[in-house]
Design a protein that fits this description.
Blueprint (H helix, E strand, L loop, with lengths): L2 H25 L6 E9 L10 E4 L2 E4 L5 E6 L8 E4 L6 E3 L1 H4 L4 E5 L16
Parallel strand pairs: 1-7
Antiparallel strand pairs: 1-4, 2-3, 2-5, 5-6
Length: 124
């Protein structure tokens, strides 16, 4: 090969490499890690809900005994969400980018789907 062909191929390889690097930076990881923190409480009684589960696609963590949680993760896309769950309550889904880096309070609604049942038995 002559020198002009080698120079052309080298320049072409450089352009292709720069192009591929720019694409990978655009689509690699566009979202940064966010921290969501605050309290989980009962909507009616305003009491803290200890050990509520805060989770996402990347895993999860539990609130402490006072209902306080601090959860850090990296969203995969704009519609990614975080779930807050507690037994006997309706699950709440929040968009992390709307509540990131500021303390929030999540109010969960009691999910008693069945009416109260009273069992009566005659005295024997």
């Amino acid at each position: 090969m002559n020198q002009s062909t080698l120079l052309f191929m080298k320049n072409r390889l450089t352009v292709v490499t720069i192009f591929l690097l720019s694409i990978s930076s655009l689509y690699g990881q566009p979202f940064t890690a966010v921290r969501i923190e605050g309290f989980v409480k009962d909507e009616k009684t305003m009491e803290s809900l200890p050990y509520a589960l805060v989770s996402s696609h990347a895993g999860g963590d539990y609130a402490d005994e006072n209902g306080y949680f601090s959860y850090k993760y990296t969203p995969e896309n704009e519609t990614d969400s975080v779930l807050i769950q507690y037994i006997g309550y309706k699950t709440v889904r929040i968009a992390p980018h709307r509540v990131a880096d500021k303390p929030i309070t999540i109010y969960l609604t009691n999910a008693n789907l069945l009416p109260e049942v009273v069992v009566l038995a005659p005295l024997i």
